[in-house]
């Protein structure tokens, strides 16, 4: 029976693949500048500099768009925690170190662009936003690699970020659509394009790990998927905002299954591979059962959502009818 590789063995064996993928990423990444995506002519001073402080009437964003923008921005804000996790579970030498630095620098642009846009356009309350940032960043982020406490934390990290980057791409892209503002949409398309390239790097690295140590990598993938949480799970109002986002199709269970989980597993040929031992096949059976349950959960969630939306629509109609009758 093949033994599990140590963290050092994994990093050493996979470094040539990391170097290839860093070079691939650098050849494909486009230079862009956050200031080019912000309508600066809409900006004005707040009360501290003789202007007017934020008022809800100033925002052109719907409640759904506000919830999604805040969730996306606070997620990006927690970058120092993510950097620490990646740096600790990867390496700061060679191709690994180059990737950690480059990925961090690219991710930092996302928070800069989104925050500048929201403050300049007065899309959300900047005081509440700053208070939430302080809470979220102080709490930090504990990755599933820490929670699952395996000596090869690299595998858990690379599996998690593969799915997380793709999930974030979907959320950013759909948030742009609900903002009803071509500037916000263009900005979030740009951010989503970055997230997609990041996902490809991690997906390729996890795929290489599967080829190197199939059972060990599959164990990490299975545990990550069965315990998956978005990185913003600990932020203020995450549950409320997450429900709003799911209810309005920004990121829901079907998108998680069909646009994130299934395409990645298909890319890795998880259910067609023949290189697992009996233990690996047992883990694969567990994953298959989990995905089947998730498919049923999707149907239940959508039935509940449809009933809820129908009740809300009926209530609005009654209120409208009552108002017009007066």
Automatic annotation (TrEMBL):
Cofactor: Fe(2+)
Stored InterPro entries: Fatty_acid_desaturase-2, Ferritin-like_SF, RNR-like
Keyword Ribosomal protein: no
Gene3D superfamilies associated with the record: Ribonucleotide Reductase, subunit A (1.10.620.20)
Pfam families recorded: FA_desaturase_2
Sorted UniProt keywords: Fatty acid biosynthesis, Fatty acid metabolism, Iron, Lipid biosynthesis, Lipid metabolism, Metal-binding, Oxidoreductase
Keyword Repressor belongs to the record: no
Assembly mode: Homodimer.
Family: Belongs to the fatty acid desaturase type 2 family.
Protein known as: Acyl-ACP desaturase
């Amino acid at each position: 029976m093949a033994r599990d590789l140590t963290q050092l063995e994994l990093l050493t064996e996979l470094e040539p693949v990391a170097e290839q993928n860093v070079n691939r990423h650098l050849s494909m990444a486009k230079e862009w500048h956050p200031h080019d995506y912000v309508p600066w002519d809409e900006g004005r001073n707040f009360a501290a500099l003789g202007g007017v402080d934020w008022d809800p009437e100033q925002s052109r964003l719907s409640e759904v768009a506000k919830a999604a923008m805040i969730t996306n921005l606070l997620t990006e804000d927690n970058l120092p925690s993510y950097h620490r996790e990646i740096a600790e579970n990867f390496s700061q030498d060679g191709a690994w170190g180059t990737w950690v630095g480059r990925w961090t620098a690219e991710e930092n642009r996302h928070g800069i662009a989104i925050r500048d846009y929201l403050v300049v356009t007065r899309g959300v309350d900047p005081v509440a936003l700053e208070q939430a940032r302080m809470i979220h960043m102080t709490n930090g982020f504990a990755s599933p690699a820490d929670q699952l406490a395996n000596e090869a934390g690299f595998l858990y990290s690379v599996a998690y970020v593969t799915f997380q980057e793709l999930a974030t791409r979907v959320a950013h892209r759909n948030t742009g659509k609900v903002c009803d503002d071509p500037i916000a949409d263009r900005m979030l398309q740009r951010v989503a394009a970055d997230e997609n390239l990041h996902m490809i790097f991690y997906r390729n690295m996890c795929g290489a790990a599967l080829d190197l140590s199939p059972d060990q990598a599959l164990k990490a993938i299975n545990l990550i998927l069965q315990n998956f949480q978005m990185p913003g799970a600990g932020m203020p109002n995450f549950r409320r905002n997450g429900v709003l986002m799911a209810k309005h199709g920004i990121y829901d269970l079907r998108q998680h299954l069909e646009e994130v989980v299934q395409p990645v597993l298909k890319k890795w040929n998880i259910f067609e591979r023949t290189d697992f031992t009996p233990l690996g096949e047992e883990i694969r059976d567990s994953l298959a059962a989990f995905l089947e349950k998730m498919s049923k959960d999707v149907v239940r969630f959508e039935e509940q959502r449809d009933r809820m939306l129908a009740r809300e629509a009926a209530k609005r109609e009654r209120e409208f009818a009552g108002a017009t009758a007066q």
